[in-house]
Specification:
Strand order of the largest sheet: 3-2-1-4-5-6-7-8
Strand content: 5-15%
Order of helices and strands: EHEHHEEHEHEEHEHHHHH
Largest sheet: 8 strands, mixed
Radius of gyration: 20 Å
CATH superfamily of the largest domain: NAD(P)-binding Rossmann-like Domain
Oligomer: single chain
Number of helices: 11
CATH class of the largest domain: Alpha Beta
Bound molecules: nicotinamide-adenine-dinucleotide
Helix content: 40-55%
Distance between the termini: 58 Å
């Protein structure tokens, strides 16, 4: 299959990541068929996409007619058999191997023979997922970043079984979406999280040891390295529990102590101090100043 043969894209899951991928694919001009778990999730996905497009229209970056055309290219389903004519599938369902395995096996019963499956997983093995599928050579990782319409990077992660054509197609498709790709072997954290997660955990270790305040750690990294957001604020923004769980998964796999989350994070997760969404994390968001 050539890049120009890809006409219909299937996206599984329309949560934070899936919705962004759907928006970008439809904006690129593809017909997008979305598979979701239930009607409630479909409503949520639709409203995330409509919100994303509204921002573009409000800023004058997209005409209302173009928004309507983008929306008309997207159809939602709960029955996998509707994905029988898609050329390329991007999976963004829950980060759980059993959920993903069940989904790929269901898709295998209905999809075309030359379809490519790409997973947007952040922490699971691409090679293991490929091994569950009928055509492991047509399986690959495509790791997008949040928010997908804004973030320019896609990490491309071939499984041990992936063939060269599939790598070429995945890179070509991401570039058609307007993204820049980097190629990385199937390894915990790929490139970005392999470097970012230990740095965030180290920042929590400095905080735990009382070496500096949260504000000073973040200010030091923002002003000293030009990061747009300090590591502790970033964890509060994305959810302290995410860095905690991801660190644990990588630690279990690599036994590298850099990935072992500090005790303060375990306690914060237990206490429900998950960051902005719960009002408290490394910072207190309930204070009015
Ligand atoms: N959130 C991030 O910053 C981020 C970044 C990069 C990659 N990822 C990865 O993207 C994937 C999705 O993450 P998210 O943050 O969008 O999660 P999310 O919880 O916001 O969305 C997941 C969606 O998948 C749907 N879903 C669950 N099981 C399904 C099934 N069997 N069939 C169809 N749909 C199903 C859910 O209804 C939900 O809408 C995960 O693998 C995650 O590791 C997340």
């Amino acid at each position: 299959m050539e890049l120009s043969d890809i006409k219909i894209i299937g996206v599984c899951g329309s949560g934070s990541m899936g919705a962004g991928i759907i928006q970008v694919a439809a904006q690129t001009g593809f017909t997008v068929k979305v598979l979701e778990a239930n009607e409630q999730a479909i409503s949520r996905g639709k409203s995330i996409i409509e919100g994303g497009l509204k921002k573009l229209v409000d800023k004058g970056k997209m005409a209302p007619e173009e928004r309507d055309a983008v929306i008309s290219r997207i159809t939602f389903y709960t029955d996998a058999s509707n994905l029988n004519d898609v050329d390329f599938i991007i999976e963004a369902v829950f980060e759980n191997m059993d959920v993903k395995k069940e989904l790929f096996q269901r898709l295998d019963k209905v999809t075309k023979d030359n379809v490519v499956y790409a997973s947007n997983t952040s922490s699971l093995s691409i090679t293991e997922m490929a091994s569950f599928c009928k055509r492991p050579n047509k399986f690959i990782g495509m790791h997008f970043f949040n928010p997908v319409p804004v973030m320019k990077l896609v990490e491309i992660i071939p499984a041990l079984q992936t063939d060269e054509d599939t790598i070429k197609l995945a890179r070509g498709l991401a570039e058609k979406f307007g993204k820049t790709t980097v190629l990385c072997k199937d390894t915990p954290g790929f490139i970005v999280n392999r470097l970012l997660v230990p740095m965030m955990l180290d920042a929590a270790r400095l905080y735990e040891a009382g070496i500096a305040s949260a504000e000073d750690i973040d200010n030091a990294m923002v002003l000293g390295t030009n990061m747009p957001m300090g590591p502790l604020k970033l964890m509060d923004f994305t959810g302290v529990e995410i860095a905690y769980y991801v660190g644990n998964i990588f630690y279990e796999y690599t036994k590298d102590p850099r990935f072992n989350p500090p005790d303060i994070m375990r306690k914060m997760v237990k206490a429900g101090y998950l960051g902005m969404k719960t009002g408290k994390g490394f910072y207190d968001y309930t204070k009015k100043d």
